[in-house]
Amino acid sequence: MKTIKxxxxxxxxxxxxxxxxxxxxxxxxxxxxxxxxxxxADLAGPAHFDPAATPRGVGQHPHRGFETVxxxxxxxxxxxxxxxxxxxxxxxxxxxxxxGKGIIHEEFHSQDFTQKxxxxxxxxxxxxxxxxxxxxxxxxQGINNEDIPTATLNNGAQLRVIAGSYNTITKAITNxxxxxTTNNTTKAITGxxxxxxxxxxxDAVLPANSTTTLNLTEGHNSIIIVRRGSITINNTTxxxxxxxxxxxxxxxxxxTAHAPSDTTSNADNAEILxxxxxxxxxxxxxxxxxxxxxxxxxxxxxxxxxAGRF
Length: 310
Description:
Layout lengths: L3 E5 L4 E4 L3 E8 H4 L6 E12 L7 E7 L2 E9 L2 E5 L4 E4 L4 E5 L4 E7 L1 H6 L1 E11 L10 E5 L6 E3 L5 E6 L1 E6 L2 E2 L6 E2 L2 E6 L8 E9 L3 E5 L5 E8 L1 E4 L2 E3 L4 E4 L5 E7 L10 E9 L7 E3 L2 E3 L2 H12 L4
Antiparallel strand pairs: 1-24, 2-3, 3-4, 4-11, 5-10, 6-9, 6-11, 7-8, 7-10, 9-12, 13-14, 14-19, 15-18, 16-17, 19-26, 20-25, 21-24, 21-26, 22-23, 22-25, 27-28
């Protein structure tokens, strides 16, 4: 069973552009390879935006050496990049962008959301690439909510498997008449995203006051981010917008869920995001929007960007 290595509390909020009020919960500069293959987790909102004429957001900016993953829970975000990709990430949708050897993109509230206003909530992750893949060609995966497979566990917990696989287990059933027992059955549910390393990325909604045993992978770094409500792991409480960094040893984690203290629409549930992945265990050198393995590679990235080679 995985145990807690560290609790990460909510950091101060700051703005990214004029469209995203963000709490940077994970950052490689502070947590290093303890969160590998993940580099960053920004929790944006929930925040209310009044109707406007001009979309808010972040203008063109470059990336190299990793992937950005955007999960939208409320509102809509429009993406466009210089590789010709674009689209609107709607509620429940996910954008998985591989920056690779270099890409320039922008992220704004969608035109429709801008005109109508409303609540915006999203999470953006940065996922590292191994040294051998850092200069891979840029790529884009846009996934709609309906394309993400779901599973309901025996206690009513609901999972959305975005990346990787999750093994659900149906308990053995004994027939009262024959006393015959049907063996436990395992079913793997696989997310639609293609990844460079072995990663599980799963949304989970846990009924309040329920206890859920989640199957993770031995040796992987695992992080539980709490979006709504609070949870308890090993008698330790993790509150909204906080995270539990788990020790790699073990292949399960036992979570007790508690309802949010406010009156949100899902007041009977706790909502979490599960990040689990095989550590890359390579040097990390970062500078702004570039994450490489050496300072020399960072200097090359800056030179290439300034020369228009992205």
